[in-house]
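This entry is set out below.
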Amino acid sequence: MDQYAPVSETSIGYDVFSPLWGILELAAVASSGMESLQHVSLTRFVADNRDELDELIEAVRRVGNFSDETLRIFEEQGGWNVERQVTAEYLMMYSGCIERYPPDTDDPAVLRHMVQTGSDLQLSLFMHALVSAAAVRGPGVKPASALIASAVRNGSSLLGIRDARASADVFRMWRVKFLPDILRPDAPVREGFKDTVREYERALEGLVDPGHGGESVAR
């Protein structure tokens, strides 16, 4: 008998949307030139990048088999329709409090540090949420892994990270940050979940870092 209560679609959706909201706010700051939060417009950034965002959301929808109702949560609570401001408090949260509070967000060096650190953190959280959603609700390891890789590439691109290695970097951050706690023998996860996550790890590595298996590791 399964000792774990079923996880709702809405709850899984929030797990995915939370880092994605963070990615968009950080991206809006990055696109503003990172001179000051006063010139950041989340609404304008979303409007200017709507096509790329829609492509990303379609990948998310398919990864988690999300309904239109669940996806509306992302739009309605995103804040860009009401000109919600990007604040220092949110940037502190998204960047893992890398700067002392209150941060001097009028200092471009401070703002850049928070955005760069926050981008790493939120992208790795985003990949983790997508893998977790796919493991529970996805279309299968092979198609879902391709969708996850696409969503992470688009998220990186929105943040202005267009290096060919961007997805591989996110993958490696995800692997070292999340997998040890999930895959240890005493981890309290559902039956079969560890094996499924291991399948996703292998599939994603082949997609985002296909040459890794043949590389030598210096000792």
Q: What stands out?
A: The CA atoms of residues 35 and 44 lie 17 Å apart. Confidence is low (pLDDT under 50) at residues 214-219. The chain is about 65% helix and 0% strand.
